[in-house]
From TrEMBL:
This is ABC transporter domain-containing protein. It is found in: Membrane. Residues 21-40 are annotated as: Disordered. Residues 21-39 have a biased composition (Low complexity). GO terms for molecular function: ATP binding; ATP hydrolysis activity; ATPase-coupled transmembrane transporter activity. It comes from Megaselia scalaris. It is a multi-pass membrane protein. The keyword Isomerase does not apply. Belongs to the ABC transporter superfamily. ABCG family. Eye pigment precursor importer (TC 3.A.1.204) subfamily. Residues 87-119 form the ABC transporter domain. One of its GO terms (cellular component) is plasma membrane.
Length: 120
């Protein structure tokens, strides 16, 4: 089996669009090839003309301890407001450059923790 040679992105997209345009009766292959090729080349030229480099941002590490979150809701049966602690004693950290997973069963407070941390 022969290995497939890689082609530039614009050529790959153009060949994909040409194949799709070939099944359409509304335009000829020449028209669709010209318009697709021109657009892709135009955008590729714009992209290539940028000589931009962004400065490296400082690393940000987040650590938290003993996070508590309480809500106040109205209890209809007791006809008064009651407070309920949703999160209690949550500790953790997020390190720059690391992928962190927050796992737990349904209703354990994963979304609430992220909402509290983002100020939502």
């Amino acid at each position: 089996m022969k290995a497939k040679e890689s082609m530039p992105l614009t050529e790959s997209i153009k060949s994909c669009c040409q194949a799709a345009a070939g099944s359409s009766n509304s335009t000829s292959d020449a028209d669709s090839t010209h318009s697709t090729s021109g657009s892709l080349t135009h955008y590729q030229n714009i992209y290539d003309s940028f000589d931009v480099s962004f400065p490296k941002r400082p690393e940000v590490n987040i650590e938290f301890e003993k996070i508590k979150y309480t809500v106040r809701k109205f209890n209809i049966t007791e006809k008064k407001f009651v407070t309920k602690e949703i999160l209690h004693g949550i500790n953790g950290s997020f390190r720059s450059g690391e992928l962190t997973a927050i796992m737990g069963p349904s209703g354990s407070g994963k979304s609430t923790l992220l909402n509290v941390m983002t100020g939502f």
